[in-house]
């Protein structure tokens, strides 16, 4: 598997449906779009429109029924589970609404987590983690566990964890959904900083128009269909 | 290293739950160990029996005795080195609650036939010289505070009357498994008394303990002895001491099987409890497993975390249970010496306890690890908290 570092997301005729009892319920229908490297895309739409499903497909944590998804030159729709796991470890950073940090690990250890799958030495891992902590401005909280951090701080730890492997793409599912206005602003500024300074490509699902304002492109989904921008 | 850290921290995440599970496993492993020891104890007489001893008894039943005249005829059988008459006395010391095994045995061959009973030469000599002398085990003497020279009276049940003895020797076992709760006195004392009080019961031996030089010839010697007395009024049945002991054990085998089943049921119960705990734990952490998977961790990592936690809890309980077994066995041996003269936890029992704990941990983790490693990331992430 070769993963090109050039950032490019391309979806072509992506369809996804779920089985509910004996019924096949379509969630996404023939979705096609492209995102250039270093772009910040916001996906908006009402609940049940298929935003999170689309995000999951882009992040390689769910599989398409038909169509293709190519990220950084790698067609992830052809990868098996194990290859997909390797691809995710190297190429995608996740930011979740509820942070999804491991409660028994400190901020430092949570951030270090993805690096444990690499062949970096302990010292190299430490350098990377300290650099990521610097980016999210949480060096002084590195030994705190998630329960000892505020929501905004937890989300910053999650962002540090997402960028620690220097992935090509960051996917964020309602990253400000559980935060107060001030913390949400800080998180969005941080994401904006990552796009501008580090050239990261971010795909964010949000309900919040203020969050969407930070994005370069806003696309709307309705009933599984991507509306024209 | 990281996995180990995660496993240990996860294990102590719900302290009360983990503590209760560890306690449950520890108690179950303790119960398993004690029950296994009890079963082992039942067969102790069989296992500690000597291959150089045969037992000749009345072929009809142990209830019937053998004439004293048989002794010399048995002694003449090729391969026989020693013969001693022996009777189960069944005497009671003060009350029935003070039960201990007591036998009348010919003093001279006693120490040759039973080299596992260690007695000083001085005490041995004193016992041989005193017809009313008795040799008692160390534990028995300790229990009743007996010392050499003390007078002890047993109330006869099979042989009526008040029987007075003087303790002349206290033996200790050559091995830890040797029974040190027995009481031996001179068979001559029994026989002489019976000659006076119940003459028809005199000159009769309950059994003959027969010493042989070569254990490999035990079957042949047994057959030769039984052939001598074939078609007599009291035919003999000669067998190895082991077979003789087994005949007693086989009478209570059903109870032993029941105890063995209970010991395994205890383990199955704790296995279900541990499996429930692990299932609950894994269910609560599905979103964490999904998060780890989204970061690139694979099913093997998830399985390791779940199995590790389950094994850590089960083995902690298992080791605690094993460590508790030794003091518990000591207490039983001390307090219930009349029922369990030797309550010794064997290395095999300890190994079985640890194996049982390992099995509990492994089986308890099977379903949760399958669930944790197969759940899709999308499904797992939906389970917040």
Structure summarized in a few sentences:
The complex is a heterodimer of chains A (229) and B (385). Chain A has 229 residues and is an alpha/beta fold.
Give a description of the structure.
The complex is a heterodimer of chains A (229) and B (385). Chain A is 33% helix and 27% strand. With 229 residues, chain A is of the alpha/beta class. Chain A has one domain (37-63, 78-217): P-loop containing nucleotide triphosphate hydrolases (Rossmann fold, 3-Layer(aba) Sandwich). In chain A, strands 6-7-8-3-9-10 form a six-stranded mixed sheet. The model of chain A is unreliable at 1-5 (pLDDT under 50). With 385 residues, chain B is α+β, with helices and mostly antiparallel strands. Chain B has two domains: 2-44 and 253-382, no CATH class; 60-234, no CATH class. The longest helix of chain B has 37 residues, at 299-335. In chain B, β7 (151-156) and β8 form a beta hairpin. The mean pLDDT of chain B is 90. In chain B, strands 1, 3, 4, 5, 6, 7, 8, 9, 11 and 12 form a ten-stranded mixed sheet that branches.
Computed Rg of chain B: 29 Å
Biggest beta sheet summary of chain A: 6 strands, mixed
Contiguous uncertain segments of 5+ residues of chain B: none
Find the biggest chain interface: A-B, 25 and 22 residues
Give short descriptive properties of this protein.
heterodimer, A: 229 residues, alpha/beta, Rossmann fold, 7 helices, B: 385 residues, alpha+beta, 10-stranded mixed β-sheet, two-stranded antiparallel ribbon
Strand-helix topology:
The complex is a heterodimer of chains A (229) and B (385).
Chain A: E1 8-20, E2 23-36, E3 40-44, H1 51-58, E4 66-71, E5 74-75, H2 81-91, E6 92-95, H3 107-112, H4 122-135, H5 151-163, E7 169-173, H6 181-198, E8 201-205, H7 209-213, E9 217-222, E10 225-226
Helix pairs in contact in A: 4-5, 5-6
Chain B: H1 2-11, H2 15-42, H3 44-47, E1 53-58, E2 66-67, H4 70-75, E3 80-88, E4 102-105, H5 107-113, E5 117-118, H6 121-129, E6 133-137, H7 138-144, E7 151-156, E8 161-173, E9 183-186, H8 187-197, E10 204-205, E11 207-212, H9 218-228, E12 236-240, H10 241-251, H11 253-284, H12 286-294, H13 299-335, H14 347-374, H15 377-382
Parallel strand pairs in B: 4-9, 6-8
Antiparallel strand pairs in B: 1-11, 1-12, 2-10, 3-4, 3-11, 5-8, 6-9, 7-8
């Amino acid at each position: 598997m070769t993963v090109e570092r050039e950032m490019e997301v391309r979806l072509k005729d992506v369809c996804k449906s779920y089985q509910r009892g004996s019924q096949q319920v379509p969630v996404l229908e023939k979705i096609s779009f492209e995102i250039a490297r270093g772009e910040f895309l916001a996906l908006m739409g009402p609940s049940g429109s298929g935003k999170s499903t689309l995000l999951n497909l882009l992040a390689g944590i769910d599989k398409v029924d038909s169509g293709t998804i190519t990220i950084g030159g790698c067609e992830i729709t052809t990868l098996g589970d194990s290859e997909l796991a390797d691809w995710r470890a190297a190429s995608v950073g996740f930011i979740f609404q509820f942070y999804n940090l491991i409660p028994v690990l400190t901020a430092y250890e949570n951030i270090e987590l993805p690096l444990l799958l690499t062949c970096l030495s302990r010292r190299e891992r430490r350098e990377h983690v300290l650099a990521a902590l610097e980016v999210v401005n949480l060096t002084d909280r590195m030994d705190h566990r998630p329960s000892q951090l505020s929501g905004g701080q937890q989300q910053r730890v999650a962002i540090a964890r997402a960028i620690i492997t220097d992935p090509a793409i960051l996917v964020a599912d309602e990253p400000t959904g559980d935060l107060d206005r001030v913390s949400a602003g800080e998180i969005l500024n941080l994401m904006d900083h990552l796009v501008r300074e580090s050239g990261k490509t971010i795909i964010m699902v949000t309900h919040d128009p203020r969050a969407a304002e930070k994005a370069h492109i806003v696309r709307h989904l309705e009933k599984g269909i991507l509306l024209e921008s | 290293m990281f996995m180990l850290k995660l496993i240990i921290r996860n294990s102590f995440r719900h302290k009360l739950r983990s503590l209760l599970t560890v306690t449950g496993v520890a108690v179950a492993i303790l119960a398993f160990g004690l029950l296994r020891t009890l079963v082992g104890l039942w067969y102790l007489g069989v296992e500690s029996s000597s291959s150089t001893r045969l037992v000749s008894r009345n072929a009809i039943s142990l209830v019937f005795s053998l004439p004293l005249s048989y002794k010399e005829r048995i002694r003449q059988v090729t391969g026989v080195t020693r013969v001693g008459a022996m009777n189960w006395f069944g005497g009671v010391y003060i009350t029935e609650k003070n039960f201990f095994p007591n036998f009348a045995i010919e003093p001279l061959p006693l120490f040759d036939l039973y080299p596992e009973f260690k007695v000083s030469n001085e005490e041995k000599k004193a016992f041989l010289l005193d017809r009313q002398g008795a040799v008692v085990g160390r534990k028995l003497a300790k229990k009743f505070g007996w010392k050499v020279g003390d007078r002890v009276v047993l109330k006869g049940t099979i042989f009526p009357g008040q029987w007075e003895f003087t303790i002349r020797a206290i033996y200790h076992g050559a091995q830890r498994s040797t029974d040190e709760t027995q009481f031996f006195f001179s068979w001559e004392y029994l026989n002489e008394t019976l000659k006076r009080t119940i003459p028809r019961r005199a000159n009769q031996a309950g059994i003959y303990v027969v010493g042989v030089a070569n254990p490999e010839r035990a079957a042949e010697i047994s057959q030769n002895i039984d052939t001598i007395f074939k078609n007599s009024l009291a035919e003999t049945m000669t067998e190895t001491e082991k077979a003789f002991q087994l005949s007693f054990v086989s009478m209570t085998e059903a109870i032993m099987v029941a105890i063995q089943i209970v010991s395994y049921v205890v383990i199955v119960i704790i296995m279900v409890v541990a499996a429930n705990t692990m299932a609950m734990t894994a269910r609560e952490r599905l979103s964490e497993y999904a998060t780890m998977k989204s970061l690139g961790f694979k099913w093997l990592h998830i399985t390791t975390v779940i199995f590790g936690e389950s094994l850590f809890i089960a083995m902690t309980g298992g080791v605690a249970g094993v460590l508790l077994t030794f003091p518990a066995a000591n207490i039983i041996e001390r307090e219930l010496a009349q029922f369990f003269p030797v309550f010794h936890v064997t290395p095999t029992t300890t190994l079985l306890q640890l194996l049982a704990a390992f099995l509990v941990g492994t089986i308890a983790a099977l379903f949760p690890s399958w669930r944790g490693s197969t759940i899709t990331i999308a499904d797992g992430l939906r389970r917040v908290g």
